[in-house]
Amino acid sequence: MLNDELIEDNTLPSDFTALRYLREKRGLTGTKEGCASGDCGACTLLVGALEDGELTYSTLNSCITPMQSLTGKHIVSVEYLSKTGELHPAQQAMVESHGSQCGFCTPGFVLSLAGLYENKQSSEQPIDREAVCDAISGNLCRCTGYRPIIDAGLSMVKEPMTQEPKETPYVELMSKNDSIKNQLESLQTEPHDSSNYLQPTDLEQLAHALTSNPEAVLIAGGTDLMLENTQRYRDFDTLIDVSRVAELKHLHIGETSLTIGASVTYSELEDFSKTLYPHINALLSRIASRQIRNRGTIGGNVANASPIADLPPLLLAFDADIQLLKNDGSTRVVNIADFYQGYKQTQLAKDEMIASFDVSLDKLAQFHRFYKVSKRMEDDISSVMLAVRFEVDNGTLTDVRLAFGGMAATPIRGLKAEAALTGKVINDEQALNQAIEALRSELTPLSDMRASAKYRLDMACNLIRKAWLELNGTNVVTFSGHAVTDSILSTGSEASTHA
């Protein structure tokens, strides 16, 4: 369903993006292409989906989203927001706050703010600065700066939620619109597959799709895969979308472990961990942007085998097991420590995919921290990533995990540093210093546009010190991606004040 029109089109290539469809096939040119890689947000769309009978909306980057992946959903372009001739509150607020200059990025900002408005109004929650900044975290502006845009987001709802809403065309929110719900419900009974884009909903359908299309490429969120199409001009023939396979969407706590399905998105894990695992939640909020987190999956982040991915170090710290699923339905388990075999190389066979991750509840209950250092708070790649877990028994460190991203060709552990701390009392600063020296001897990070090797190494050492300080009860205050503490960190390095 595109805006207020039901669309049926069986002529599209499997990799034809939603951005191209809107602009080239429908003449909806409000949606812009800025980067074609999911970084700038000019192509943002608002997409509604039925979940347990409720209609919820989220944003995504249309430049890297196959149009066929949105079958059975409500696609909202910027043109729809003022379909009655009246501006949507997000649009009106942008006008009143002078939030637009050249206008190229504005449609993306408006849809991100409109999504926030729809979701917050529907749940009757206030819109605060944190919510606004999160909503526009994947939208870049080069003209006005962000203050007037943030002001616009904060001014979308001027009356308290307890008051009667104004008589506007948006009193009935999109998420409360029964007509939209009914039409989407009718679409759920229609088949989602086309000849070149298959969307199985269970493992049986997935197995059939794989055996019938042995040369097909798997796609979930596509936030990395689609760059092959938009940046390297690779054409995909048949795509098998695993994002709707129910067995790959499991996210639950069992007797001994937390199971995370491979097709669980960052946003879904973020919501799940908000109260249960706040440190995991804090890391997830630093990964990419809201648009990317709404589509990118945990399995994709791990299987992509990028050395700067943020979730592999976390899984290394927790010693997670990976369940691999073969095309014939059989499975095998590989520990995350054995999964990576070199740059962009994993244990995955050609006929395998990641099905799920199992993380021990006992390890989740132990002290853990995750530190991401990057040039921007949102929508940026780590210069250094550290995941830490300390197991403590009667004041002694009995198990230590120090896992790094962005430091080598694969996610890596500081084994010598771990050994220097294991068996020592938690407040043994001499052991900490020995661990830091051990780390300097075993890590040889690279230099690139994000950071020098020296910066990376100094930062890694200081982050270990930060974790040790927090383990011992020191309040290390973090702001703008950096941290300060009353305790003296390592000196004489360019990273000494950035732990």
Short description:
By secondary structure, this protein is α+β, with helices and mostly antiparallel strands.
Structure description:
With 499 residues, the chain is an alpha+beta fold. The chain is built from 18 helices and 19 strands. The protein has helices at residues 18-25, 89-96, 106-123, 129-135, 147-155, 178-188, 203-212, 227-230, 266-276, 278-284, 290-295, 298-303, 311-317, 336-339, 361-364, 415-421, 429-442, 453-471, and strands at 44-51, 54-61, 74-76, 197-198, 217-219, 239-241, 251-253, 257-261, 321-326, 331-335, 340-342, 345-346, 352-360, 367-373, 384-393, 396-405, 412-413, 477-479, 482-484. Strands 7-8-13-9-10 form a 5-stranded antiparallel beta sheet. β1 (44-51) and β2 (54-61) form a beta hairpin. α2 crosses α5, α9 (266-276) runs antiparallel to α10 (278-284) and α17 (429-442) packs antiparallel against α18. It is globular and about 70 Å long. It starts with 17 loop residues before the first helix and ends in a 15-residue tail after the last strand.
Distance from N terminus to C terminus (CA atoms, Å) equals: 49 Å
Strand fraction = 15-25%
**Helix/strand/pairing class, anyone?**
alpha+beta
Task: Choose one word for the global shape.
Answer: globular
Q: Sheet bearing the most strands, described?
A: 5 strands, antiparallel
Strands of the largest sheet, in order across it?
A: 7-8-13-9-10
The helix tally amounts to: 18
What is the C-alpha radius of gyration, as a whole number of Å? 24 Å
In total, how many beta strands? 19
- Which whole number gives the mean pLDDT? 90
User: Approximately how much helix is present in the residues?
Assistant: 25-40%
Low-confidence stretches: 159-163, 165-171, 480-499
